[in-house]
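To illustrate the input format used throughout this study, we show a single complete record. The first block contains the structure-token representation of the backbone; no residue identities are included at this stage. The design step must infer an amino acid for every position from geometry alone.
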């Protein structure tokens, strides 16, 4: 009676319904379960490696991996049970994970990838306690694939590459065993019966040892190599289209700090004293971190990132990575510019004229003022990640128009350089959108000399003591058509003069890169010492030249001496491009100074006179859609002998450029409105049809080549099989020729069946009995077979 009362209650009815429901079909393959679990654990480790978990945080893999293994073992042991309480517990834990995710999502709106990955990891851990069916294992495989994809977007170094290789190595056999499970191919030996929940060691060992029978090591390595090659090939040729489709860019978690006193005037360089602090200043070379007088450079921080540059410092930097940059185009990561030459360095004369910009409360976007020039420009998006601490100066391509930065305020100085309220800390990420001008030599050569009063005041300044001497030397260089700097163009424009002088300083063997130039004396001028010799030189042989930045200082002052506005700009060269991560790895040793020249109506353009560096700094080109492929090829060519790389560039490179041009044209159609979209679809359809037609012709040619290698009897037999296969009745590989002929009697008319049977019997007798065959008779039968298709007596149904 109690049982009937229970059944009458709604809860009891639901429980009875659950008990009577059919049990799920379980997955019995242990090796598939082990492979899936390994795949997921490797993906979780990949997220940790790619995200670069800090040392003070517990990596997710330390708890998620072991817990998911425990869940997988428990799930296997209880796979034949309904596990209703466990399912309710899993649902509760998933709801708690969702609540945790929503709470963290509010503070991580700038970049939700890692938060989403952590949610997915937690869901997978709880899901691992309920994996009875193959379909449940499939869900885990998909989660692992998503996690490794998220890790790929987070990765900035090659440390992620080994994890990816391991993931691929596990994924290949996992897919093979999953496919066997779909085909209901059971293991040779059952690992567990429904009556026993224990697994014998011998049965487990037998299934793992049978792995090599399913896929041999040679087959596995070949499949792994093919997959890896195809993946790298697709990555290399994948076009980098100009412009992001989504206007959400990666930036760090917002930094909360009191910015009431921030005005942008102060530059904090960790390696140097604050502005205005001349502590330790003196005439001796023993002082360090000084803004004036002889001294030693800091070994980690570039001396040029300050309100004043003291080029009387000596020393060198210890290489270390400071930035990782993902950019649509390469370029000079510009940091700071200087207008006033002091004789031993540079300073910013208008440092007090900074503008503070506050972002809106609901967005991390800062809008910047961009001067309008006549130069053609292109939007370039860059995302920067700080690896080592830097000053509170924000590197960006010239000229930035928008910046996504994790503080409430930033500052812009009078020359358009960006400043942060705090030093750029390790791990900080921000994004800049720049309107980068194209460099058109022809147009810039036609630029006039109608400079504004402000330009003349700021960028033609030169100490009177050296003005005449430097001008005379500059005019002498321009008048001499030296052999070290041949220039076929007339030096009648500011652009050609700047280009000629930069090339002259770069290639003139007299002006050398000095490893340790002498210190400047108290009243000695740097440009004068560079051009004519340091006072602290041997009496018989004056030392001329200097550090790399000294070349840029000399070029800037020389241009000013002949009335061409110029300034010194400091920043980072592009760095080393990593074709696998798609990022530029920038070191502190990449920091240097260049000369920027002003052209009316066109703006500022840089020249680099430093020996060993490009005369024109890297910048945007007309099209860099396949920039990753170009960078990848340059990386490969660096390892090849010059004759080999030259051959590949001339021949194979030409083919790639042709194909790339076609793809660029096709993709460009889609940016021209509806007409461009329809035109692109039509073009893709036409090219697709031509590709299919070419493939069919190639297959036919290959088939004919194969037939020509066969004997006449086998050739006729194979032609018959091909003809019948085209009409939907191909021969199964498991059928013998005679079995196939017998099967065709049920589908074709008696006349056609007799032709098929005679050809098959003749082939079998020739191949296995060495019987003579009338080849002419066989050919006539084949011709009759093909002709009968046009008549009504072909299929058996036609005779009815």
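Output of the design step:
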């Amino acid at each position: 009676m109690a049982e009937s009362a229970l059944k009458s209650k709604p809860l009891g009815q639901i429980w009875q319904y659950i008990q009577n429901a059919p049990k799920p079909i379980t997955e019995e393959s242990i090796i598939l379960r082990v492979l899936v679990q390994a795949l997921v654990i490797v993906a979780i480790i990949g997220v940790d490696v790619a995200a670069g978990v800090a040392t003070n945080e517990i990596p997710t893999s330390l708890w998620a991996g072991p817990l998911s293994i425990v869940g997988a073992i428990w799930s296997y042991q209880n796979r034949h049970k309904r596990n209703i309480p466990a399912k309710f517990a899993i649902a509760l834990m998933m709801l708690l994970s969702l609540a945790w995710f929503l709470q963290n999502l509010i503070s991580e709106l700038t970049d939700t990838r890692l938060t989403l990955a952590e949610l997915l990891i937690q869901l997978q851990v709880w899901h691992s306690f309920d994996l009875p069916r193959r379909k449940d294992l499939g869900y885990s495989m998909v989660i692992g694939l998503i996690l490794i994809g998220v890790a790929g977007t987070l990765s900035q170094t090659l440390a992620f590459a080994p994890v990816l290789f391991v993931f691929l190595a596990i994924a290949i056999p996992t897919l093979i065993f999953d496919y066997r499970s779909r085909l209901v191919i059971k293991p040779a030996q059952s690992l567990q019966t429904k009556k026993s929940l224990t697994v014998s060691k011998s049965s487990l060992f037998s299934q793992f040892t049978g792995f090599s029978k399913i896929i041999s090591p040679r087959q596995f390595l070949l499949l792994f190599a093919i997959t890896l090659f195809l993946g790298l090939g697709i990555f290399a040729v994948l076009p980098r289209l100009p412009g992001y489709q989504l206007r959400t860019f990666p930036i760090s978690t917002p930094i909360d700090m009191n910015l009431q006193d921030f005005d942008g005037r102060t530059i904090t360089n960790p390696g140097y004293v604050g502005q205005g602090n001349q502590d330790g200043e003196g005439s001796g070379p023993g002082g360090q971190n000084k803004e004036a007088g002889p001294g030693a450079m800091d070994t980690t921080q570039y001396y040029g990132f300050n309100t004043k540059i003291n080029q009387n410092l000596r020393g060198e930097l210890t290489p270390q990575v400071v930035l990782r940059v993902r950019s649509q185009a390469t370029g000079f990561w510009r940091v700071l510019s200087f207008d006033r030459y002091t004789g031993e360095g540079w300073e910013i004369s208008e440092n007090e004229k900074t503008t503070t910009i506050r972002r809106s409360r609901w967005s991390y976007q800062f809008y910047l003022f961009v001067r309008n020039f006549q130069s053609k420009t292109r939007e370039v998006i860059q995302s920067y990640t700080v690896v080592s601490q830097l000053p509170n100066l924000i590197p960006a391509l010239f000229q930035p128009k928008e910046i996504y930065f994790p503080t409430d305020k930033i500052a812009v100085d009078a020359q358009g350089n960006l400043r942060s309220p705090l030093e750029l800390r390790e791990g900080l990420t921000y994004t800049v959108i720049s309107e980068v001008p194209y460099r058109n030599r022809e147009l810039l050569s036609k630029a006039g000399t109608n400079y504004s009063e402000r330009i003349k005041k700021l960028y033609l300044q030169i100490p009177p003591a050296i003005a005449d001497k430097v001008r005379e030397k500059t005019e002498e260089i321009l008048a001499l058509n030296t052999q070290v700097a041949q220039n076929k163009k007339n030096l009648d424009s500011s652009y050609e003069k700047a280009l000629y002088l930069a090339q002259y300083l770069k290639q003139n063997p007299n002006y050398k890169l000095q490893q340790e130039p002498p210190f400047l004396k108290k009243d000695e001028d740097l440009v004068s010492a560079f051009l004519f010799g340091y006072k602290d030189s041997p009496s018989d042989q004056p030392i001329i030249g200097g550090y790399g930045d000294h070349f840029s200082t000399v070029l800037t002052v020389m241009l000013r001496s002949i009335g061409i506005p110029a300034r010194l700009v400091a920043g980072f060269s592009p760095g080393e491009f990593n074709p696998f991560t798609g990022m530029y790895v920038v070191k502190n040793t990449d920091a240097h100074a260049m000369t920027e020249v002003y052209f009316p109506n066109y703006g500022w353009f840089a020249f680099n006179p430093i020996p060993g560096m490009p005369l024109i700094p890297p910048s945007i080109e007309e099209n860099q859609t396949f920039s990753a492929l170009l960078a990848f090829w340059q990386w490969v060519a660096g390892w090849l002998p010059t004759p080999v790389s030259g051959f590949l560039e001339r021949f194979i490179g030409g083919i790639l450029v042709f194909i790339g041009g076609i793809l660029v044209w096709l993709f460009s159609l889609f940016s021209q409105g509806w007409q461009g979209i329809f035109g692109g679809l039509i073009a893709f359809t036409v090219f697709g049809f031509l590709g299919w037609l070419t493939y069919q012709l190639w297959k036919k040619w290959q088939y004919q080549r194969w037939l020509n290698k066969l004997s006449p009897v086998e050739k006729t037999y194979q032609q018959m099989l091909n003809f019948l296969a085209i009409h939907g009745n191909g021969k199964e590989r498991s059928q013998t020729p005679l079995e196939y002929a017998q099967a065709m009697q049920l589908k074709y008319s008696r006349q056609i069946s007799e032709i098929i049977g005679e050809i098959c019997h003749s082939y079998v007798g020739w191949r296995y009995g060495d019987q003579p065959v009338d080849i002419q008779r066989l050919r006539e039968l084949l011709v009759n077979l093909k002709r009968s298709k046009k008549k009504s007596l072909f299929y058996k149904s036609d005779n009815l």
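Structural context for interpreting the output: The chain has a mean pLDDT of 81. Residues 22-237 form one domain.
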